[in-house]
Amino acid sequence: MNARLTFLGAVGTVTGSKYLLEFAGQKYLIDSGLFQGQKQLRQRNWAPLPVRPAEIDAVFLTHAHLDHSGYIPLLVKNGFKGPVHATAPTCDLCGILLPDSGHLQERDAEFANRHGYSKHKPAKPLYTQQDAEDALTHFKPAVFDRTISISDDVAIRFLHAGHILGAAIIELNIAGKKIVFSGDLGRPNSATMLDPAVVHEADYLVVESTYGNRRHEQQDAEDLIADIVNRTAERGGTVLVPAFAVGRSQSLMFHLDRLKKAERIPDLPVFLDSPMAIDASEIFCRYLEDHRLTAAQCGTSCGVATYTRSVDDSKALDANPMPKIIISASGMATGGRILHHLKHYVTDERNTVLFTGFQAAGTRGDALTKGVKGVKIHGDYFPVHAEVTNLHMLSAHADTDEILSWLGNVERAPTMTFVTHGEPDASEALRQRIMKELKWPSSTPSYQDSVELV
Ligand SMILES: [Zn+2]
Asked: From the CA of 35, how far away is ligand 1's center (Å)?
């Protein structure tokens, strides 16, 4: 086969997913995500790739989250001409996420210039909303489980990963060899998403390790959500939920709707305060074959929340002291409307800030869930008095045992299993389990490592 795989992101970190695969003069990128979190990581978004975007033949995208897709507009802006292959729901979700990402970057640059807190003068966006709109014309929707021929000797197939709507495991066939990219793996037996597809065969495997060193709590998510909502309501407080617009927002509404119907929580008003999450919910309800909810269940769980689209309605939520539940993006409190709500709610001990999954190192979500006394938002400092908690089991990621049992379906040991998409401890822990329990060769590549696949 004689291919070369270069790790351009998601190694030693959960962000910036980007793998370059070169074979017989062809160049492919598997995922093209943004680095997020710590500044030294985010700076990598500005560094040129070791390959000219114009030379890349195609992008294969596992799912819509920005840490997997958010670099595509820059790739196109810098000369990429090829197609972006992704499942149909992923294409639709990128249709809202990428323009929003461009818009946020323009707004942040403008905000930094206005308030003079950027070192760069003037601060510039990585790409604009228009760049993102242009990039969308490159997307080619694919059907799950169907083989797509890319060239004479390269074919790909998208398998359900269960992580979020549209998320895929990507199987590449190159000259008779099989390379499998897990993408982000979902949890088996999720209330809303399908189980990750079983993979029986792989010559090379690239597997994520977000929770490579952790097990999710065994308690029932709904019990815990009920406890949190009830004790916050007793204090007369508000539950503020930083949630990923895509995935967590929909499953939270599903749980809240069930809890309300069972009268296990008081009938507090629920607000979905993210135009993107609202659009994502609509897309979710369009693809009934790609998750577990029926049309009726989609309807009722989306109906639990009042949608606030306009900025004025969003602001009005904070002006009204009535206890409530606000679900808003972004999930790691790195940007978006959640920041304005945080400023308002984090300083009052009656409130709860409820995180719903993995918090990347260096994000506000990471700092808050680790118990910092204060948090900086838009240059100002806010003392943290609210209860802060994180329900990891709501995470859309498999834990260490679940990843290992998914790997266990592969019948013959792959030539090499690359453990990526994790903080260093998590990736190393999973690598050791793979070596010890499955007895497979395994490695944790570093940024820009390049390996020969034979
Ligand atoms: Zn993801």
From this structure: 13
